[in-house]
Every structure is written in C-alpha cells, then in structure tokens.
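Q&A log
Question type: sequence-to-structure
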Amino acid sequence: MLAKGYSYEERAAQWLQAQGWRILQRNYRCKVGEIDIIAMDDSQLVFIEVRSRSNRRFASAAASVDRRKQQKLLRAATVYLRSVGARENYPCRFDVIAFDPRQSGQDAELRWIRSAFTA
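Response status: OK
Response body:
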C-alpha cells in the first residue's frame, strides 16, 4: 500500500510541476504530523494533502480529509513555518489532490481542490 500511496504523491508532484509550481519539500514530517507536498504557487505557499481511494463504495478521497486530519495538517504547517522563518510572510493555503477511481478503467482521476479548507 505504501508504494501505491507514493505513486499518487509522485503523480501529484509531477502534475504540480507541469502547472509551473515549485516543489519545496515532500513528505515533511514533524512531531505533530506530516505534509505530503509543500510547494510555491506563484507567491503563495501551499500545503498539499494527497489522498486516494481504490473503491467507489466508500467516501471520496477528498472527503477523507476530515476535521481531525485538517487540524493535524494545520499543526504541522505551523511547525514548518516556524522552522523556515523567512517564508512565514507568504500567504498560505491548504489544497487537496484527490485520486478517485473512474467509473471504468484502471487509472484513478486526479482532482485538485484549491483552498480545500482554511485555518
């Protein structure tokens, strides 16, 4: 399962770079949580959670970023901002890149949710 999750994170990172984004860090880990991708979108610092689902019968990948997960991401982002100092003056946002299975076919569809939640 780890390999599958990594492949979705890799697809998300490649997609972001194709959009002109600069990836600053992947899989940032600290005591309070993890952030899948940290990137710059023009002059905005973006914390990105990558989620996937393999079965359409359960909640969507995006819906799995519940309030508890959002709080963990917020805490991890705060730690990150304190650790880099200089970037804390950039406006920040939280995006979700979700991969849900298509109705037919094997390849999951990428869905980008800009400003998925706020602090």
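Response note: The chain has a mean pLDDT of 85.
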